[in-house]
# Entry
Amino acid sequence: MRRKAVFPLMVLLAAAAGCGGGDGTEAAPAASGAPTTPVAGSAAASGQSTGPAPSASAGGGGDVTNRCRHGGITFKVQDAPGGGAAGSQYLWIVLTNPSSRACTLYGYPGVSWVTGDGGQQVNQPAERDTGVEPKQVKLESGQSAHVQVRSPQPGNFGDACKPVDVRGYRVYLPDETAADFVPSPQRVCSADGVGRAQVGPVVAGLSQ
# Structure
């Protein structure tokens, strides 16, 4: 009876050994073909695109196809009507279309004080004046538009201002990534965020 029991026992031991990986570890399960669950916090889990992030838009609307582009607009600075009030200076950056074709502008340009053409930025970029509603502006050949920039007087802020002389503005047209230097020598606050300039949207013509 004992000899008859040996063979079934050997069969059971062999079957148990076949379930392992041969090195004392458990055999890996076969791939099921089902999609894996995204890791929490990953781009796939959140539904976000894994491609490059889009650049920030300074305009946010208007005629994208025929918009005015870097290199196709000329700039100059002039005093705004009234000059200034309440401790601030108001200037206009005048944008003119010298080409033979019309183009459009919409929204806010990027404006910063700089020490010169290609020079260092001073203070933070001008913040947007959201009290004026942006409108699409079409510039025919030879026509101009303007952007109003308010610059607080450095004397308003005492020692916190750290005033310095700048040579002008670095200006990005709405939705453009290349800038132009626009001469406008003035004295401004250099301390980060103190006496920061404010810029309005592009406005048609040279009147308020």
Remarks:
- Helices lie at 2-17, 43-46.
- Residues 1-59 have pLDDT under 50 and may be disordered.
